[in-house]
Design a protein that fits this description.
By secondary structure, the chain is α+β, with helices and mostly antiparallel strands. It has 14 helices and 19 strands. It has helices at 2-11, 49-62, 114-122, 140-146, 153-156, 191-195, 229-241, 254-264, 285-298, 310-321, 323-327, 346-360, 386-405, 421-443, and strands spanning 17-18, 42-44, 66-69, 86-89, 96-100, 105-108, 126-127, 163-169, 175-179, 204-211, 213-214, 220-226, 248-253, 274-280, 303-306, 333-336, 339-340, 363-369, 374-381.
Length: 455
C-alpha cells in the first residue's frame, strides 16, 4: 500500500488521490443489485491523459488491478471495485475539446455528461442522439464502456454507431489511437468498435471522436392505451412492418404506469394494461402520428391521444424517463433486467415475464424500448427478506433464460459486468468465449483491467 501511494504521488497532484477510508467505499459500486464489490486501496481522479498513463504504468509495475469508472449509474456491476484495486474515476476529465459543424463531429473527454454534450451541440444546430434514461448524470466514457442505448435508438441507433475514433491508454500505459475523424474509413481492423461495450476491460478511454447529426425538428408524441400487452406489441409489429420510422417507440405496462403516477402524479391512465408512446420528429409529425394511431386502433387500442404540442410531448417523455425511478419506490430494492429480443417476439417476452412474476409471487414492472425489442423487466423486492431476495434472483435468471429462448440477448444496452457474466458464457458458447478471452489477453496480458467482469 505504501509503495503504491508513493509511486502514484510521484506523478499526480495531491488532490487527485483519495485515500480516506471513510470516503473510498463510496466509490465501490454502481447501481446494480446482487453484485459483490470490494474495497479499493485508493481512488484516483485524473485530469489529463498523462496522469492516466502514470496510473497504468504504476499499476503494471506493482501488479495492482484498476477499475475504471464514470458516474456509476450502471446497472450491471461493471464499475464495482475489487479488493485492493485502484479505482480510476474519469469524471474530472470533462472537457468538450471540439465541436465541428462542418465535419459533424465532437471531440470529448470521457467525463463529459451526456446531457451537457447534447445541449452544447444543440446550440450549433447539431444533435448527438444516444440518450440513456440517466442522460442527465451518465458520462460519455461510461456510455462507450457499456455501449449505451436510449429512447431514440429505434430511429437513430446506439452509442456504437456514433463513436468514430478513440484515444485509449492501454494496461501498460501506452497510448493507442483508433478510428478516424472522417466520414468514411476502413483501414485495418475496427478496434474502435472493439472498445465500445468492453466495460473498461481492454483499456482506458481518454478521448472520443463522436459523430453528430443535424438537429431534427422537435418531436410530437402519441399515447395509446391497450387492454393487454399483447395488443400493444401487435401494434409495434404493425408500425414497423408498414415502414414507419418513429423517433421513439416505448412501452410501459400497468405496473409501471401506476408506479409513475404514484411517484410523480403524472395523470397517466391507470386503467390501461399497456401504454405505448410513439413519436416522430419528421417535418409533418401530425400526419405520421395519425397513421400510427390508426394502426394502434386496428390492434385494439382503447384510446389514442396525440399530443397537441411540444410541451405535452415532453410531459409524456418525462413519464417514460421516470419509469425506473418510480419502480424503485415499489419495494426497498430492484433488479433491472435488460433483455433484448426480436421485435416479432416482444409480446411473448412480456407475457412470459408476467408468468414468471406470478410464479415467484413478485411485482415485476416492464418498460421497454419497444421499437428495438429491448425490454427492461424490473423485479421489485424487499432486500431485508431473505426468501423474497432469493425469489427475486431466481426470477431474474428465468427472465434472461426466456430472452435467450426467444432468440434474444441477455443485454441490449446495460452491459454484462458482474451481474450477467455467467449468462454471457451461455450466450457466446464455448468457441466464442475462448476467442473473447484471447482478445482480452492480447490487450491486458496481466489481467489488471477491471478484473472479474464479463468473464
Amino acid at each position: 500500500m505504501d509503495a503504491l501511494l508513493e509511486r502514484l504521488r510521484a506523478g499526480l497532484p495531491a488532490e487527485a488521490l483519495i485515500t480516506d477510508p471513510d470516503v473510498t467505499p463510496s466509490y465501490a459500486h454502481d447501481m446494480a443489485s446482487f453484485c459483490d464489490a470490494g474495497t479499493p486501496a485508493v481512488v484516483v481522479l485524473p485530469r489529463s491523459v498523462e496522469e492516466v498513463q502514470h496510473v497504468m504504468r504504476t499499476a503494471t509495475a506493482l501488479r495492482v488491478p484498476v477499475v475504471p469508472q464514470g458516474a456509476r449509474t450502471g446497472l450491471s456491476g461493471a464499475a464495482n471495485a475489487s479488493d485492493g484495486c485502484i479505482v480510476l474515476s474519469l469524471v474530472k476529465m470533462d472537457r468538450i475539446l471540439e465541436i465541428s459543424p462542418v465535419d459533424r463531429i465532437a471531440v470529448v473527454e470521457p467525463g463529459v455528461v451526456n446531457a451537457t454534450l447534447s445541449r452544447a451541440v444543440g446550440e450549433l444546430g447539431l444533435y448527438y442522439p444516444p440518450d440513456p434514461s440517466s442522460w442527465e448524470m451518465c458520462t460519455i466514457g461510461g456510455n462507450i464502456g457499456t455501449a449505451s442505448g436510449g429512447l431514440c435508438c429505434v430511429k437513430y441507433g446506439v452509442t456504437a454507431e456514433y463513436v468514430l475514433g478513440l484515444e485509449v491508454v492501454l494496461a501498460d500505459g501506452r497510448l493507442l489511437n483508433t478510428g478516424r475523424r472522417t466520414a468514411k474509413g476502413v483501414a485495418g481492423y475496427d478496434l474502435t468498435r472493439l472498445f465500445v461495450g468492453s466495460e473498461g476491460s481492454l483499456g482506458i478511454v481518454v478521448k472520443a471522436v463522436l459523430a453528430l447529426r443535424p438537429r431534427p425538428p422537435r418531436q410530437l408524441v402519441l399515447a395509446a392505451e391497450f387492454p393487454s400487452a399483447a395488443a400493444a406489441c401487435d401494434a409495434v409489429c404493425r408500425i414497423m412492418e408498414r415502414g414507419h420510422t418513429p423517433s421513439l417507440l416505448e412501452l410501459m405496462d400497468r405496473t409501471t404506469v401506476r408506479a409513475v403516477n404514484a411517484m410523480a402524479s403524472m395523470g397517466l391512465p391507470e386503467s390501461t394494461e399497456a401504454l405505448l408512446l410513439c413519436a416522430f420528429d419528421t417535418p409533418d409529425p401530425a400526419a405520421d402520428l395519425a397513421a400510427v394511431g390508426e394502426l394502434c386502433k386496428a390492434s385494439g387500442a382503447t384510446e389514442v391521444v396525440p399530443a397537441d404540442d411540444v410541451a405535452e410531448s415532453e410531459l409524456l417523455l418525462q413519464a417514460r424517463r421516470s419509469a425506473l425511478p418510480a419502480l424503485e419506490t415499489v419495494k426497498s430494492a430492484t433488479m433491472i433486467d435488460d433483455v433484448c429480443v426480436p421485435r416479432s417476439r416482444l409480446g411473448a417476452m412480456i407475457e412470459g415475464t408476467a408468468a414468471i412474476a406470478e410464479k415467484f409471487g413478485l411485482t415485476i414492472g416492464v418498460c421497454a424500448h419497444a421499437g428495438d425489442g429491448n425490454t427492461h423487466p424490473v423485479v421489485c423486492f424487499d432486500h431485508t427478506d431473505p426468501d423474497e431476495s432469493r425469489r427475486a434472483r431466481a426470477s431474474f435468471d428465468e427472465i434472461m433464460a426466456l430472452g435467450l429462448e426467444l432468440g434474444g440477448t441477455i443485454t441490449g444496452e446495460h452491459g454484462v459486468g458482474v451481474l450477467k457474466k455467467e449468462w454471457l458464457a451461455r450466450e457466446l458458447g464455448e468457441v466464442g468465449l475462448e476467442l473473447q478471452r484471447g482478445i482480452k489477453s492480447a490487450f491486458d496480458p496481466l489481467g489488471l483491467l477491471n478484473p472479474g467482469k464479463l468473464f
